[in-house]
What does this fold into?
Amino acid sequence: MSLFFALLFYAATLILVGGVAYKVYDYARTPAPLCIPTTPAPTTTGGVVLRMFREVAFFESLFKANLWIWALGWLFHVSLALVLLRHLRYFTEPVNFIIAFIQPFGMYAGFAMAAGLAGLWARRFLVERIRYISTPSDHLMLALLLGIAVTGLLMKFVMHTDIVAVKTFFLGLMVFEVNPLPSQPGLYLHLGMVALLMIIFPVSKLLHAPGVFFSPTRNQVDNPRETRHLAPWAAKFETKN
Amino acid sequence: MADETTPVAVAPAPTPAAAAKPAEKAKIEAPAYRELPFIPALQPGSMKDSRPYVANEKIQEALGFNTKLDDDWQVTHDVAIAKMGELLGQSRALKVFMDSCVHCGACTDKCHYFLGTADPKNMPVARQELMRSVYRRYFTLPGKLFPSLVGAKDLTKEVLDDWYTYFWQCSQCRRCSLYCPYGIDTAEVTMAAHSILDSAGYGEKYSNEIIGKVHRIGNNLGLPGPALINTLEGVEEDVLEDTGVAVKYPLDVHGAEVLLVTPSADFFAEPHIESLIGYGKVFHAAGISWTLSSKASEAGNFGMFIGNYEQLRKIALRVREAALELGVKRIVVGECGHAWRVAYSFWNTLVGIGAGANDPFAIQLQKQLDPNYRQPSHICEVTWDLIQQGRLKFDKSANDHRIITFHDSCNVARASRMGDMPGGQFEIPRNIIKAVANHYVEMAPDTIREKTFCCGGGGGVLTDELLDLRLKGALPRMQAIKQVADHDSVNFVAMICAICKAQFTKVLPYYGFKMGMAGGVHQLVSTAIVLKNEQ
It folds into this structure.
């Protein structure tokens, strides 16, 4: 089983990193032929960096759109970030003092993350419009994330796992050594779902994470009168005149 | 209430398709008012029969598109999917937008067509999903392997029909893009869908016929040169009679300082022409030599509506050619929403009207244009600059019979700018109104500025067979107008868009308002400006 999970995580990491890298490359190489920022938009690059920061860190547009979705979504994402940071302790030795410091917060964030996900999922049943637009994969994605959160919390509070062995396992993977993973169903479930999430990341709506940085309506500077934005494929029209 | 209103005489809105089938839907009525904000319960399929006329073979052929759907569906299918692949490779926006949506629902209650029709396919996310489900099926691995799990669909005739129906129920107003956490812009998706439909031989008659006219005659309304001369002479006579001042409305004058490019509706439609009169008075009062062009007698560019870069460019090229021929120093654009988007945001890229270029094609024109002015300028920028310089005099009391509110047109509000500061597109028209009139009132804050509601007629749906859609789509805007009409006795809605003007003129009577309630910002300028005979 240890070998299975070792191979699974190597494969999952390869797919996640390779897949997202390919997507980022694909987005980056595809030209944006026209200047289409949603205005009013910043007129300087600095302004755009600020706009993107507010968008990514605070979900500014979503805040304007719908407070419920914003509150639940932001709660989930911030909690997830804390939980991920907390998990860095399984991959580093010695553990950075910041990571050590946030351990208790990361723990509470686990509950907040589950609560946010549950709320987002509830909306898919309770709000008619959102029920209409939900696909089976939307539900499965939430189930997967909630499953990861719940199994994680269970291991922390109900059925403890030998986390020292887990850490040894992952530190070993990083130097291509397979150490024994504690044989515990909760852990298997947790890790299996995490690996699945990593695998589907580059082919699913989770691409919104890299995608938001490439969204022309948000990342373009409002300067079309001052600068000519000509895509290579569009430049060829000019040679015809 | 609106329900009891009898449709009043129909305004001469520039809807060529109207002539084809007059009074076909005499019983179309405006929906009942509701309190803002409102979110309707879903009525699936309520708009499934709302479709514009399909372009005939002649219209399609003139633009170089497939003339009709192939008898063999597989052929049409392959053309459409190939075009989709091509567009995905050309536009980062489309590619990113296809991947990024998480179905969060933020946009679901933002579209005026959804609010007015309650058809769930008019929720922006659902409209995009029409294309996204096909994208997934042909361009993503999960869609190829597990189509039903991820909501992927084969492109069938039924799906393409759904595209035609619902992508022609989007006015590309971008209100949804304002609220999307990833900035997904349904307008981009709609444009791509229109482009794919055109390639497949499934074009919209209204838009494609108009584009044909621009190429054949020079403007959307098909007014030939002699008709233009006649109209402009008539305008000069009218203004002389009204004011005693000989204001000129020149055409094709070489060496004029300003080339004014304006929507062709300004030449004959009411209330559009009142703004044209206003532009001329502003230039006259400021002593600026200007000209219109018979070649570029149209600011509108429906190439944007059909999402076709080549058409967009070809139509814009007329303006470049006219500017080079006439040797003008400045290019100014009249009151037109999507035209201002194309001019402000796209002209520099398309045909080099702007600044900052380092390629020979663009430099040729940019050398000629005066760098001391914004190129191109909006007529409101010109007027506001002149007001600030004290070069225009007004008798504000001339507008005292009007209590005015301002309707932000979507393409100006969310897809362009005026002046040097972000948001200038909101301040400058309002500043002008306040400089020429005494009574000004704002509509509800969630319905103005970048949150403005579309008039319901933009994006290539300003055609009579879509009147039902247009009436329903106008509901949120009409509700906001009703609030200020009831509360503040507002009797004039000012705007800077030819399509908005035509749409309001048509729709207002159904909602119990007077048709003449809608008008241009330069109509107000025209009323109040003080002219002298000697410049």
About this structure: Chain B has 23 helices and seven strands. Residues 225-243 of chain B form the longest helix (19 residues). Residues 2-9+33-203 of chain B form one domain.
